Structures are given as C-alpha cells and as structure tokens.
Amino acid sequence: MKMIDVLRIALGNLRRNKLRTTLTVAGVVVGIATIVFLVTLGFGLQKLVVSNTTNLEALKVVTITKSKDENKLLNDALIDNLKKNPEVDLATPILSYSGTVKEKEGIAPVINGVEPKNFAVYDLKTNLNKKFSSDNAGEIMINKNVVTALNETEDQIIGKDFTFDITGLDPTNTAKTISVKLKVIDIIKDDSKGKFGYTPIANLKELNHHFFNIKVKVKQKEKLQEVKKEIESQGFETSVVASQVDAINLAFGVINGVLGAFGMIALFVAAIGIFNTMTISLLERTHEIGIMKAIGGRDKDCSRIFTAEAAIIGFMGGFFGVFSGWGGGKAIELLINFLANKAGGSAPGHLFYTPPTFAIGVVLFAFFVSTFAGIWPARRASKLNPLEALRYE
Amino acid sequence: MAKTPVIKISNLSKKFMLGDIEVQALESVSLEIYSGEFICFFGPSGCGKSTLMSMIAGLQPPSTGSIMIRGEDLAKMSTNQLAEHRRTKIGMVFQAFNLIQTMNVLENIALPLTFARISKMRRMKRAENLLEIVGMGKYKDRTPNQLSGGQQQRIAIARSLVANPWIILADEPTGNLDSKSANDVMKLLISLNRKSKRTVILITHNPEYIQYADRIFWMQDGKMIKVEANSHVHTAYAGDKTSKHKKGEESQEDEVPDAAEVKEDNFSVEEANK
C-alpha cells in the first residue's frame, strides 16, 4: 500500500470521528502549548537577563589584558596584526593614566584614552548619548563621582572646560606629565565608586607608551573562542564577558529543563489520550481490519493506517500547540507591558522568546510521542486473526 | 474442460479448539478443481464448507494435508505472500457483503488495488468500469449503508473482480438477500463463469443453486461425501427465473447486465515496487 493511500485512509477515518479526533488533538495541544509557554518564558527571561547583564555586542569582544612575554607589547603593530585576521571586526586600544584637575584639590580621576570611532565597544551608557565630535576633539566624558567631586551638578557641568594634568609614560618609558584642557560633553551612568573619564586617545598621544589593553571585536559571536585562543597562543592574556554569560546560560538551562519537565507531564497525559483513542478505534474497526485482510491487505498495511492516524494527531497537536503556546506568551507579554506602561514603570519588553528550531523541534517531538503512543494499537491491528476479525461485530 | 487443476487439495484436515472441546472441522478432504469450472460446495451449516473456503483463501492454515493453487503450496507461503494470494488470485464474496461502511462504493471496489499500490487514477477507472458491469454505475458516490442488500452484494462482486482473479469464492452470497436480488447475484456469478471463464466456487446450503454448477461437492460433518457432475448444466440456466421478477414491483431496480461485458481486459495487478 502506498504511503499516500495510507494517509488518505487515515485522514478519512480521523475526519469521520471529528469530535473524538478534535478532543484527542486538543489534549496534545494543551501539552505542547504548556511546554512551549513555559520554556519560551525561560528562554525570554534568559535573553532579558543576558542582555541586561551585557550588551549583546559585548559577547563578541575579547580583551587583551597583558603580554606574558616582555618582548611582545600591546602596541600599534599588534593592532595592525590583529586586524589582518578575517574574523576580526575591529581592534582598538585604550590608555589609562591617572590625572588631577587643576585648581581642584584631591581629585584623581583615571583618564582613559580611547578611539572615538570605536567608543561603542565599551558599551557605556551616558545621560545625553553624545559622541566625541572628532578623533582629536578636546572633549571628555566623566562619571558621576567626578561631577560630585568637582562640586557641580550633572546639568550645569556640561560644556565647562577643565584642565587635567595627566601623568604617564612616554614612548621612551620615562614618566611625564602633560596638561590638557578638556570640555565635559556628557556624563557616564554607572554605579562604581571610582572616578574616571574617557577622552579621545589623541589627547594622550605624548604619553603613548604601550597600551593598557586592547579590545578585539570579532564578526561572529561563534568565532570568539577561536580568536581568543589564537591571541593567547601568541603570548597574551585575555578575558571575555562570555564566560559570565555561560554561567547565566547554564543556570537557565536548568530552569528551562524543569519548566519543560512540567510541560512533559501534560504531554504524557495527552499521549495516554492518544493511546486510549487508538485502542477504542481498534475495537470499533476490528471487523473492517478483517475485511481488509480478507481482500488482500497485508498486516503492515493495517498497522500503518493506525500508526498514521496517531502520527497525524501528534503532528496537528504539535503544530497547533506551538501556535497556542506562542500566542499565549504574546498575550501575557502584551498585558504585562500594557500594565507596566500604565503604572508608569518601564516595560520589560520581550518576556517570551521562541527560537524557530525550538518550535520545529517541539512539533517533531509531539509527532514522535504520539506515533509512539500509537505503536501498540497498530501492532494489535496487524496481529489480528483475519477470520476472527471478520466474525467480530 | 481444461485439465489443469487450479486448486488441488490433498488429504486436508482441520481441527481447532472451541474452549476445551476439539472440533474436527475437516477430515481428509481431497479434491481437484479445474480452470473455468463452476463448483458448488453443498451441505448443511456446520459441515465444514466455510472452513474449506477460508483455507483456500489462505485465511487459516491446514492442520494436515496440503492446498496447491496452480502448483503453489499455500502452507509454504508467508503472511505477506498469503495476502498477495488473496489480493491477486482470489476474489471473495461473503454472505454479509463485508463492505467497509466508511468508504464509498468506488473506494470499496478499488481497495484491493489500493493494497496492490496501483495509482489512484488507474484503480478508480477500473472500479468505475466494474461498477458499470454490475449495473451500479449511478451509485458510485454512495456509501454501502445507502444501498440495498442486493446492491451491496453486487458491489462486493465488483470488488472481488477488481484484481482480475482466477478464482471467485462466494460464501452463501445470497444468504441475506430477497429472492429477486438473490437471482440477480446468481445471474452475475453464472455469467462470470460462462462468459469470462472464471473458476467460481459457490458455497451454499440452498439446493436451488446446485443446478447451475458443473460439479457439486456434497459435504457433511467435515467430509466430502459425494462429487456429482451436472450434465445438463449449460441449459439449466435457460430457465432464467430472474425474468419473472423483472416485471414485478421492483422493476425500478437496476437491470443486471449480462456479464458478457466482463471481458478479459488484460488488467493485471503488477505491483509497484516499494
């Protein structure tokens, strides 16, 4: 018997028992929707936590902290070398020296020299979202602690000039202090106790010894470990944010597993429902199976019809279940965001996240579970004695 | 009469258990049936004739003895080969019609071809053709429960013919029918035998029908007690009782066309490979 004919007969049988089919499918829908709802909530929260912990872009960044070998330096040559790697999107240095502010006693902020065009790599939140106006602009962004130390308010300090005395090492490795006048253009939002500011690296060019560290951003997140290993093999120490994220992901993996297990209970109940439906169907159709065998149907033709029916129930249940679970999540999400907005708080945004592979995987899972539930009734159908089945009414 | 035995049964016995009691359903039955014969297994109910038929169909194995169909031993066949045997060499007609209620008339007729992996277009064409032959052309979209008993039995006969089998096994085909329908069905079976040279085995306890058979196998208590040849058989049909009924109140019933139209159309069940 051809597969297409098995499906035709199976679909015909399911269509004739509309109510029973609908109820059985509904059982699977509930099970699958529960799994999808719970697990996508887990995925969504995971994504929310990971992205709140760190900008997703930061997952692509590896920081070269120092050289293990005194002959190898964190310098422009190294940066040029790094940029040759096709996986590397950008490599940008930072210089960090401490400085004082003229006419203000006891303030020693750390002044970081960065490349303005690559400033986004540090993922700093500022009050005004300003950018440095050029590569060598005499501008600085400072954090709140510096503002307080300067006896200013966050509003008033914007646009004011301060002269910073910055002490560091020059290219010949001797200590040197330079004096630069910098205009405050923005305030960095942070919770740290330290005092620091960021300025274009060009302002510190006289102190251009070797870099404090180099941030390397890769083009694809997946290549991060590869690039990291390669840099380490060249004799440098590195650090990545990703390891933190791995820990978060692991924790959520466990949570998702537990949520999924709750959903599995619902699906298990649905599988029993399928088993029950198929067994009743077997009893009702015993005579029909006898006829089929008497006119030349093979044992496996009979069992395939039953297996196909169970599989179709599973597939439909999986399909509609994924949609219901996804839709339920969307509805809850909209409701929560609506209430949060109304209460004046900040809306949490996406609470549910459904990766397409997960959705497809769940449909396949439902398909296999219900096919499995149909195995026993299908085997019974194939094993029925044709004569006894023909006599059965 | 051709001398090739289509069915050769030697020393066939069948015992089975009904609870704790052993029942000897058949005892040392031997017979040969030749191509194109109209055979009647005649005997009271419980004489073992239905058991014999189901064994020829390969629906149950013999306890001892053998059944050879054109030289092939049924006992040596696997369940799949037996299914193929029923599908291609045997056409079965039952007292209870045994149509599948959930399928329409055409699907029922085509079902053996569905098992044989014949394409939908081909098998539906074949089924429609047979539906015309049994005079039921206008009922193709009905389901069995929308038809009378006689009509259902004609559908069952069309189904038995669909794979162009050698042998038609008809187990009390008129047992559930009124006399008009019974005569229609008999007429169809007879013409299948006469006009398209099929071997027909009719199982009955109704003595009216033995006149149509070439040979009658008398059975009693699981034994073959007498084999009788009918010399006048070709004229017996001339009596044509059906014509009396045709003018009756059931004249709106469909005419059963002469099965001469069941010509050998070279339809063969070449099973598509999997």
Automatic annotation (TrEMBL), chain A:
Q: Which GO terms describe its cellular component?
A: plasma membrane
Q: Where are the transmembrane segments?
A: 21-45, 258-283, 304-326, 358-378
Locate the coiled-coil region(s) and give their ranges: none
Domain MacB-like periplasmic core as annotated: residue spans = 21-233
Membrane topology label:
Multi-pass membrane protein
Annotated signal sequence is: none
Give start and end of each ABC3 transporter permease C-terminal domain: 261-386
Tell me the protein family, please. Belongs to the ABC-4 integral membrane protein family.
Protein name, per record: ABC-type transport system, involved in lipoprotein release, permease component
From TrEMBL, chain B:
Q: Which Gene3D superfamilies match?
A: P-loop containing nucleotide triphosphate hydrolases (3.40.50.300)
What are the residue boundaries of the ABC transporter domain, all occurrences included?
A: 7-246
Q: Keyword rRNA-binding, does the record have it?
A: no
Q: Which domain of life is it from?
A: Bacteria
Q: Does the keyword Protease apply?
A: no
The record ties this protein, via CDD domains, to: ABC_MJ0796_LolCDE_FtsE
Listed GO MF terms: ATP binding; ATP hydrolysis activity; transmembrane transporter activity
Q: Give the region (Disordered) as residue ranges.
A: 236-274
Please give the GO cellular component terms listed in this UniProt entry.
membrane protein complex; plasma membrane
Record's compositionally biased regions (Basic and acidic residues): 260-274
Q: Which UniProt keywords apply?
A: ATP-binding, Nucleotide-binding, Transport
Any idea what this protein is called?
ABC transporter, ATP-binding protein
Species annotation: candidate division CPR2 bacterium GW2011_GWC1_41_48
